Amino acid sequence: MLEIVLLVLGIVAAGAGIYAAVVLVTTLREAQATLAEFRDRAIPLIDKADVTLDAVNAELLRVDGIVTDIEEVSGAVSSATDMIRTPVDALAGLGGRIARSFARSRRS
Q1: pTM score, two decimals?
Q2: Which helix (H) or strand (E) holds 37?
Q3: Per-position pLDDT tens, the chain of length 108
């Protein structure tokens, strides 16, 4: 009787092992198919991302050029403002002195 029970348990264990092996093989095949599909979709996305990054870099270089031009113009305007301000300040000071002179001459 023990031999029959052990034989049945052996058959059940062998069946469970075969079933586990079939499930494992099926799962591995599905995983392989999923990875192949992912690879097929990921490579074009990576290529598109590469093109997009190149375009962004080109735009950043263009913006950098614009900022450099603005800095140069700003420096030129600042220099021109200083050149204009100095004579204007001198004239304003002279005008103030002349006005005070006229005010003093009227008082006298």
Answers
A1: 0.45
A2: helix 2-107
A3: 888 888 999 999 999 999 999 999 999 999 999 999 999 999 889 989 999 999 999 999 999 999 888 888 887 777 766 666 666 666 667 677 777 777 777 776
Residue position matching structure tokens 């996305």: 45
Phi, psi dihedral angles at 68 (to 5 degrees): -65, -45
Q: Please provide residue 38's backbone torsions phi and psi, each rounded to the nearest 5 degrees.
A: -60, -45
Q: Report which DSSP code applies to 1.
A: -
Which of 95, 68, 48 is closest to 56 using CA atoms? 48
